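Handoff note, outgoing to incoming analyst
You'll be picking up this chain. Sequence as last confirmed:
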Amino acid sequence: ETLNTNPNTLNTLATTGVTSAFVANVIPLAEQLDIKHHTNIPLVLQIAGVQYMMSSKRALISNYQEASGQELSHIPGVLTIKPQGLDFTCYAYEDSRGTTIYSKTRLMMLDLLKQVRDFDYLYIETLFMSPSEAIETVHAYSDALAHLDDLLYGKYVKEYEQLLHQLNIPMDRGFIDEATIYHLEDVKRRDAS
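Most recent structure output, in case you need it:
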């Protein structure tokens, strides 16, 4: 669902009946746009909210508590964790289907809507948002999208970015400005040696 990182895989999946797909949010924006321009099915791009990092079909929080004999202090099903050696925190979310890890910071692409307008669907992840934060976020993005082609777009973006920052929620760019961590050729070379 969220790990589609190249157009060839998506075009192959289309031949098997897949009718749409999420583009991975762990790759740079330039690669996301390249996928969009070389894929034959409708694509979804996340533009706001916490970002999916990993998942397991296992109940990792419950299993840890049971194995360690420790009762963790947390909202049932949700634990805030800080990975060892890293400078950010994450949400660990557990339900009957397993455990999923999300970033605690929110992805913010309000000022990049003109660049991502070719995507068929733009997605706002509202998990871990309060109702008022979700409403304000959707409203800000909807208004900015309505003004993409007029001179007020920049004004709306600036005003809404200030409003969203007033919610006091940590926001960042995710991976959109990062370089790819590895390339397939590097993996093949590594595996051959």
